[in-house]
Amino acid sequence: MSKRIESTTEAWESGHLGTNEAFVKVASEETHDALDKCMDLKLISIRLPVSLIEEFKIIADYNQIGYQPLIRKMLQRFATAELKKMAIELYGMSKLEKEKEQEALQKNPEMKKAS
Description:
- By secondary structure, this protein is an all-alpha fold.
- The chain has one domain (9-114).
- Helices cover 65% and strands 0% of the residues.
- The chain has five helices and no strands.
- α3 (50-62) packs across α4 (67-107).
- The longest helix has 41 residues, at 67-107.
- It is elongated and about 90 Å long.
- The termini are far apart.
- The mean pLDDT is 86.
């Protein structure tokens, strides 16, 4: 009989717990569905070059995470950065348009009366 290991954060992080394949089992479909719902995930299919997947696996291994969570993080960072960029561009454009409108009003005060 094997000695029972106390369930502590240190035991999990050091790998004393959670790494023995004898205790591994495939999660049920209900568990997968519940996890997806809880984490607000949706399964998609995408074709990527094998070399790119291998690069993600190397980066993920270096960061000690799975490559799929790494890809999710990367996509989230990209989407956030692009949305910020778009917001800045749109805000900058609207600010520029307002400035042009104010300049036009200063040049022709009659425009203000008409609107």
